[in-house]
Amino acid sequence: MRKWQRVGLATALAVATAGSVTVAGGAADAQSNTNLATQPASPNSRYETATVAANKRVVLRFMQDVLNGHHGDHAVRYFTPGMSWHGGTVGTVTGSDNVAGLMTGVVTAIPDLHTEVQDIFGQNNEVVVRLVVTGTQQGPLLGIPASGRPVRWDAIDLYHLEGGKISEEWAGEDFVAFLNDTGTYKAPWIP
Question: Are the beta carbons of 110 and 117 closer than 8 angstroms?
């Protein structure tokens, strides 16, 4: 693993385990990955182990099917039975059926939800994804009533996999951006 990858992984781990929120800056340098399931695991795949490459493919398929495909009910296919989703101040959800219910709630509330992967890398049984999430909030989410407004936030998610399935996710989401976009809260630093 290259030094920049180790630094990035350490940063993502620190953000994810601290449950901190990344404050959205200017426009993202987004590249559209419209079909994540068919994208190569990364430009550096030849330097990865087969396990890391396979784990990245699982995470990308999960994102494409469940989030971009809006199939919350498919989420359980990608999870171990004891799956745990750690959302920082939002809380922790445990059990594959419960986490699948959370995913269903997200894609139901934001039926046009779309994730764009900005970076993805892995080490051993962990995969880190930096992404931009967009959509329109049409239903209640996190106790916020449907706003009908477009939403956009940045995220860094860390996935731990066991036996080719996701066993844990630490979701570092920019919820301040979500609150701003829904009209729920305006942080003083947001123009």
Answer: no
Query: pTM of the predicted model, to two decimals?
Result: 0.76
Count of C-beta atoms within a 10 Å radius of residue 108: 15
Backbone φ, ψ for residue 170 (5° rounding): -110, 110
If you count them, how many residues does the chain have?
A: 191
Contact 188, 31 (CB under 8 A): no
Strand order in the sheet with 165-173: 92-94, 79-86, 165-173, 150-162, 126-136, 114-123
Can you point out the beta strands (E) in 36-190?
Answer: 79-86, 92-94, 114-123, 126-136, 150-162, 165-173
DSSP letter string over 89-105? Answer: GG-EEESHHHHHHHHHH
A 10 A CB-CB count for 118 gives 17
Mind listing the pLDDT tens digit for each residue in 52-76? Answer: 999 999 999 999 999 999 999 999 9
Structure tokens belonging to residue 174:
């920019």
Cα–Cα dist 100/98, whole Å: 5
Name 123's bridge partners: 126
Asked if residue 154 lies in contact with residue 132, where contact means CB atoms within 8 angstroms, the answer is yes
Structural domains in the chain, sorted by start: 3-16+53-181 (3.10.450.50)
